[in-house]
Design goal:
alpha/beta, Rossmann fold, 2 domains, 7-stranded parallel sheet, 36% helix, globular
C-alpha cells in the first residue's frame, strides 16, 4: 500500500548499510512526515568483508536493515568499493528509482559513477536532489574548489543537508547560496552511548581492572585504524615524551601500523600503554567510558563520528585541526583540545593540558557538563529537522 499522498516520497541513494546511518533511517521511518526508501549500491556491512585498512574481516553487530524500506541495486563493478570512481556501477539504479516514483532524492556524495548517473537521471526527470556529504577544505588548496565540474555539479542540486560548519564553508566556497543550505548535522544513535548505563559502567570497570588501571589513572583513548593517516604513532610518541605520572594510553583497533606501534610502545614505562583488539559497535561504549579523553589525531578526517560517540558519554576530545567536526564539537578549553596536525610539539602540549584538566576533579566535572551540553544538539531529531526543511524547500513552488 502506498503512503498517503500528503507524505512526500524521499528516495535515498547510499553506497552501503552502515552502523551510523541505518539507525537514523529507522528513526525517520517511524515518523509520519515522509515516506522513505533507501537504495543501496553495495552489500558491504551486511556480510563479512575484509577491511583493507583494518587488515581483517569486519561485520558490525548492530541491526542494519530492519525497520525501514530498502533495496539493494545490483553492483556490476569489477572491484566494488568507495575508494574509486567505478566502485559503484549500478546501471539498474534509474529504473529502480523510477519504479518507486519518488518526489525527491537524497544523494549521499557525488564521487562515484552511479551517484552521477542518479543525479543526471533526476535532472532529466525534473526531480529535486538534496545532496548530503561531509567534504570540507581543511588542509586543501581553495583553488581546487574553483574547478568548473564541481561548481556545475552543485548547481544541479536543489538543496544541501549540511553536516557542520566546515562542510557549510565548503559549499559556500563553491558558490552555493546560503538559503540552499540546511543544518542536518552528523549524529549517532545516542541511546547506545548512555553514560548512566549500569552495564556499560560495569564493563568499563572490568576493562580498567583487566588493564591494571587504578581509579586515579588518567586514560587517553585512541579508537580506530592503525594507519599513517590516523596518526596513532604521533599520539604514542607524544605520550612517551610526556612521561606523565598516573596516566595511560589505550589504543583500540587494528591495521598496518600495529607491529610498529607495538615496537614503539616497548619504550614506555610498564603498564602505561595498552592495546585492545578492534571492538564491535556494541563494545565501544565501555571503551569510551574507561577513558578520560578520546584522541583523534588524524591528518585528514571528513568528520570523526567517534567524537560524537565519546562526547555522548561525557568524554572530552583531543583532535587535530584537520578533523572535520572540530569547528562544531571541539572548542579549545571548553569541550576539548585542538592541535596542529603536523606539529608534534603542539600535540604534546595539548595532550599535557588535557591530562592536567581531567586530573582535577572540579575542572573535569565542569568539562563533562559542557561536553554533554554541546553534543545534545547533535541528534537524529536535529538531523531530521534539517532534512525536512531541505525537502520542504526542494518541493516548494518558489525555489530559486
Amino acid at each position: 500500500m502506498n503512503p498517503p499522498a500528503s507524505r512526500p516520497r524521499l528516495a535515498v541513494v547510499l553506497s552501503h548499510p552502515t552502523q551510523y546511518y541505518s539507525p537514523w533511517f529507522r528513526w525517520m521511518a517511524a515518523r509520519p512526515e515522509l515516506a522513505l526508501r533507501v537504495f543501496y549500491l553495495w552489500d558491504s556491512g551486511v556480510r563479512e568483508q575484509v577491511d583493507p585498512e583494518f587488515g581483517r574481516p569486519v561485520r558490525w553487530d548492530v541491526d542494519l536493515l530492519s525497520g525501514y524500506e530498502h533495496e539493494f541495486v545490483p553492483n556490476l563493478a569489477r572491484r566494488p568499493g568507495a575508494d574509486h570512481f567505478w566502485g559503484f556501477r549500478n546501471p539498474g539504479l534509474p529504473g529502480r528509482l523510477a519504479a518507486w516514483n519518488p518526489d525527491a532524492v537524497l544523494l549521499f556524495g557525488y564521487a562515484w559513477a552511479s551517484h552521477l548517473r542518479a543525479l543526471a537521471w533526476c535532472r532529466w526527470r525534473g526531480l529535486p536532489v538534496i545532496l548530503r556529504g561531509d567534504s570540507h577544505f581543511l588542509g586543501r588548496n581553495p583553488r581546487a574548489l574553483r574547478r568548473l565540474p564541481l561548481r556545475l555539479l552543485v548547481r544541479a542540486c536543489t538543496g544541501f543537508a549540511v553536516v557542520g560548519a566546515a562542510n557549510r564553508g565548503y559549499y559556500r566556497a563553491l558558490g552555493v547560496p546560503a538559503h540552499r543550505l540546511f543544518f542536518a548535522p552528523h549524529a549517532v544513535d545516542h541511546s547506545l552511548f548512555d553514560p548512566d548505563c549500569a552495564a556499560t559502567k560495569e564493563e568499563a570497570a572490568r576493562l580498567r581492572k583487566q588493564l591494571a588501571l587504578s581509579p586515579a589513572t588518567r586514560v587517553v583513548l585512541f579508537a580506530g585504524k592503525f594507519t599513517p593517516g590516523k596518526q596513532p604513532a604521533a599520539l604514542l610518541e607524544a605520550f612517551l615524551r610526556l612521561e606523565a605520572p598516573d596516566s595511560a594510553l589505550v589504543l583500540v583497533g587494528d591495521g598496518g601500523e600495529k607491529e610498529a606501534l607495538t615496537t614503539l610502545a616497548a619504550r614506555a614505562r610498564p603498564g602505561t600503554v595498552h592495546f585492545l583488539p578492534l571492538a564491535n559497535q556494541s563494545e565501544m561504549p565501555a571503551r569510551y567510558l574507561l577513558a578520560d579523553v578520546l584522541a583523534l589525531p588524524s591528518r585528514a578526517e571528513t568528520w570523526g563520528l567517534v567524537v560524537n560517540e565519546a562526547m555522548h558519554l561525557g568524554r572530552p576530545c583531543l583532535v587535530s585541526d584537520r578533523v572535520g567536526c572540530q569547528q562544531d564539537l571541539v572548542t579549545p578549553g571548553e569541550t576539548g583540545w585542538v592541535f596542529r596536525h603536523d606539529d608534534p610539539a603542539d600535540l604534546q602540549r595539548q595532550l599535557q593540558q588535557a591530562l592536567q584538566v581531567v586530573g582535577d576533579p572540579s575542572q573535569a566535572g565542569a568539562l563533562r557538563t559542557r561536553v554533554l551540553a554541546r553534543i545534545s544538539r547533535y541528534t537524529y531529531a536535529q538531523t531530521t529537522a534539517g532534512l525536512l526543511a531541505a525537502l520542504e524547500f526542494a518541493l516548494g513552488p518558489r525555489r530559486q
